[in-house]
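User: quick one - fold this with zinc ion bound?
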Amino acid sequence: MTGAMRAVWSSLTAGAGALGDLVLPRACAACESPDVSAGRLCASCNIRLLSLVALSYCPRCGTTVGPYLPVGDDGCPGCPATLPRFARVFRLGPYTNPLRGVIRDLKYHRRDTMRRRLGHMLGQLVAGGTDDGETAPQLVMPVAMHWRRRLVRGWDHARTLARAVARELHLPVGNELIRLRNTPQQAHLPRSRRIENVRGAFSVRKAKSLSGASILLVDDVTTTGATANEAARTLLQAGAARVTLAVVAKGEPPTAYAQHAAGT
Ligand SMILES: [Zn+2]
Ligand SMILES: [Zn+2]
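Assistant: Sure. Structure tokens for the protein plus zinc ion:
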């Protein structure tokens, strides 16, 4: 069992008993089955989550790769021609259920259980993949949301997720990265327009505090990587030494993972 899979197992009990579960009706966060076993998921979604987390993926672009394809720090054959500015990506799995439902729960319900569970799993994944002292992150930061969107939604789910990951890693959460423009959501745009849409969307305050820092950037989903890439570019330009990305899920065509995922 890999470190990531162990983290899923241990997370089955890590969030149990949180206040949200005591006061709200219990249902599986992914398929809404009333038969919740642990960590706000039903037994079959928990098993499916394990099979997603077990998939091999490219550390540069986050895309699922076959278990026998050797993938190094240079990336996979499917990596974009211009590699992203973040040094590597950690992900729990592809953007499909139950992770799709888990992210919906994180975004639209302020429940502690799922946030703690995701923070635990992502934190363990990062801790297991960054043994080298030079590359280990020193500061956790969410991919910043524009204040207007935060006002409409009521909270910033990427920031609450970043806090949960930081707690797991015993690291501080930085607020230096800010979003200047309230850009149209990337999901509503064709891939070709996503890079242009986020160009210049971020800025930093207190740039001095970022000098030479190794930063862990946290978000719920990455698809083309354009938003995270622009955030990483902004942080590196402000003096950060290294940016690593940690996401719950990677949006990719089902053909990328269907043949490798058990039970799909
Ligand atoms: Zn379920
Ligand atoms: Zn790749």
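One thing worth noting: The domain at 3-256 is CATH 3.40.50.2020 (Rossmann fold).
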